[in-house]
Amino acid sequence: MAKKVILAINFEENRVKQLKLLGMMCKAATQAVSEGEKGQTIGAILGLTVEEIQAISSMAKPVAEETVHDMVDSQLQPPVTLEAIMFVGFESAEVTKVLTAIRKGPLKNIALKAMVTPNNITWTVDKLLRELNAEHEYFKTHHIKP
Question: Mean pLDDT, the chain, as a whole number?
């Protein structure tokens, strides 16, 4: 995953174009995720093979398994429609620069942000959106600035 990519989820076409300009500045491809792709895993969206995804996810730190209650709750929730971006192959300092440029430029704000990790590369885009939205709501409720 040496190639840098910015995944754009729930973006209108004009905002994808603005994000692509930012991507060019940091030598990253920008890829819009369509509605039909939201059931696919992050790894599949990135064009990785099953073997590559398994190799990356094998580096994941253990996390609590999802319970049946969590799965039922997630199926009852309405789809997340907030814009989200996912950084692939970026160093933390590069992400900070892009986020600063977003705040100062015409995009202004993107509510949901993530970096690809060994833990989330096997998630579907829908699951990623639910997780990011839950974090976003928690921060808003507790008046925490991420």
Answer: 89
Give the burial string for 7-46 (b: 16+ CB within 10 Å, else e): bbbbbeeebbebbbebbeeeebebbbbeeebbeebbbbbb
Predicted confidence (pLDDT) per residue in 91-112, tens digit: 999 999 999 999 999 999 999 9
**Is residue 72 scored above 50 in pLDDT?**
no
DSSP code string of 126-137:
HHHHHHHHHHHH
**8 Å CB contact between 43 and 52:** yes
Encode pLDDT of 26-65 as tens digits. 999 999 999 999 999 999 999 999 999 999 999 988 766 5
Torsion, Cα 127 129 132 138, to 10 degrees, reads: -100
Question: How many whole angstroms separate alpha carbon 30 and alpha carbon 39?
Answer: 19
Domain ranges for the chain, please list them: 5-141
